């Protein structure tokens, strides 16, 4: 499974642990959450519910994996079970612009040099 979120946005993910038959089951202890790249997408367990995590994309774009990990063995042993989702962080909406100034020949429009590299010829007038 995969998801997309913009830079500087929040999202929520949740996990439902399943058995081979697709039935929701309990796990031993709280679910642990992690991001493969916290610089691109931060992952924090939701307060009060370890089956939910909050995501935040602080700035750089890129792809990460969010992992939920738990102990499937309800007894004394430990059997790790993991579920993952791919998240792509994409550019956000424009909030401003950056204008670049450079001195060079004009780039199209009136007064440009055109394909010849010379200014346009002045209009000719007819005299009688």
Topology overview:
Layout: E1 2-6, E2 10-14, E3 28-35, E4 42-45, E5 52-56, E6 62-71, E7 80-90
Parallel strand pairs: 1-7
Antiparallel strand pairs: 2-5, 3-6, 4-5, 6-7
Number of helices: 0
**What radius of gyration results from the CA coordinates?**
29 Å
Average pLDDT: 90
* Helix content, binned percent: under 10%
The major sheet is characterized as: 4 strands, mixed
Task: List the uncertain runs.
Answer: none
**From the 3D coordinates, which CATH architecture of one domain would you assign?**
Sandwich
Any idea of the CATH topology of one domain? Immunoglobulin-like
> Largest sheet, order of strands side by side?
1-7-6-3
Q: H/E series, N to C? A: EEEEEEE
The tally of strands reads: 7
* Beta strand %: 35-45%
CATH C-level category of one domain: Mainly Beta
- Global structural class: mainly beta
Distance between the termini: 80 Å
Rough shape?
Answer: rod-shaped
Plain-language structure description:
This protein is mostly beta strands. It has a domain at 2-90: Immunoglobulin-like. It contains no helices and 7 strands. It has a 4-stranded mixed sheet, with no helix packed on it. The model has no long low-confidence stretch (mean pLDDT 90).
Q: Quick gist of this model?
A:
It is built from no helices and 7 strands.
Describe the structure using short key phrases.
single chain, 128 residues, mainly beta, Immunoglobulin-like, four-stranded mixed beta sheet, three-stranded antiparallel beta sheet, 0% helix, 38% strand
């Amino acid at each position: 499974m995969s998801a997309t979120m913009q830079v500087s946005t929040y999202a929520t993910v949740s996990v439902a642990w399943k058995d081979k038959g697709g039935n929701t089951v309990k796990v031993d202890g709280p679910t642990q959450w992690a991001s493969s790249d916290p610089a691109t997408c931060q992952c924090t367990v939701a307060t009060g519910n370890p089956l939910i995590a909050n995501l935040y994309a602080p700035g750089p774009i890129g792809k990460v994996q969010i992992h939920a990990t738990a102990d499937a063995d309800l007894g004394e042993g430990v059997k790790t079970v993991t579920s993952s989702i791919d998240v792509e962080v994409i550019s956000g909406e424009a909030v401003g612009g950056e204008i670049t100034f450079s001195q060079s020949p004009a780039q199209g429009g009136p007064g440009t040099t055109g394909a010849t590299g010379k200014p346009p010829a002045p209009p000719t007038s007819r005299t009688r």
